[in-house]
Amino acid sequence: SLPIILSLGSIVTSSISHASMAPSVARIPQLISPPSNAGPAEHAQHIINSLFPNTSSPFVPRSTKRENSGSFQSRLTKVPAVISPPMFLRNKKRLIPTPFGELMYNQAVHLIEEFQKALETLEKAKREAASLKIGLAANVFSALKIESLIAQFQEQNPAISIKISNETDYICETKIENGELDAAFSMGPFTSPDIVSYYLTCESIYALLPKAYPIGNKNTLNISDLYSEALITSDIQNKGYAVLLKDFQKKGLTPHIVFHSDEPLSHLELVRKNIGISLFPEHWLPMLNSIDDVRALPVCDLHKRELFMILKKGVSENHIRDKFVHFICRAFETFC
């Protein structure tokens, strides 16, 4: 009988006025009694259909507030009563609550409010269940051309809400561990036991220098050719910077770094001004197609940048995330 209680609670809030005392028996109109062969559930559904014919839920007070009072009450008089003792009485002008009705209202109004909060919580959970939170490390974003892949996935799955955040490699990993992201694209390696990674691709590191530079006549370079040169590298917050330092340290060398930046145009401008030699990733090469005063040479003994999609290990089944993971793995022909 709870749905009936809630419905009547809504009725009281919008359609009845309180009486200071119960009317005499002579003034009580005859209440409609339910057929003896009908169960409470049948009466409950009949009341719901009669009072709220145009709404899918009788528990939202707004639907009753929009009702015309007269038409609402006229339909109400045709509805069988399933609650005993009577909660309200009817006359020509209005519905009058009995003392039982007032008592029920005072109890039911809190239930109605809590039920409305529950509905809102469920609706929020439903929206979040249909969303996907993706993190992109700045140094990986353009290398993987991930924006076009995400656009394709969104086109194929328009009901899924995709939220993208641009982060550093390290923040991507932290947010994956904390459950703030469903998936992220970052540079390896990874040391956290809470992260599972899917290898996607790799790219070489190049040295960008003026054509007239003394070592510019070679076809390839090594770390030993560069350690004493002024170097322009990726930002210190970029994992590529840490990998670069380790490569030099393994050779017992310390690089002479004069500038940090993740902006390819900044690297190019500094090289052209002879400020230093840039160490930059392979996917920046196309910007040099129309430039003839600089040269890009591969650095053979610098580790290639390995790029991954990462997830949190041990997360409960997530249909939307898994669908995205399989989409990305197919795009890179990776086994997932």
- The percentage of residues in β strands lies in 15-25%
Largest sheet: 5 strands, mixed
* Class from helix and strand fractions: alpha/beta
Radius of gyration: 35 Å
Spatial shape:
elongated
Order of helices and strands: HHHHEEHEHHEHEEEHEHEHEEEH
Number of strands: 12
Mean pLDDT: 76
Low-confidence stretches: 1-36, 55-67, 76-81
How would you briefly describe this protein structure?
This protein is of the alpha/beta class. It has 12 helices and 12 strands.
What does this structure look like?
- By secondary structure, the chain is an alpha/beta fold.
- Helices cover 40% and strands 20% of the residues.
- The strands form 3 sheets. It has a 5-stranded mixed β-sheet with strand order 4-3-5-12-6, sandwiched between helices.
- Strand 1 and strand 2 form a beta hairpin.
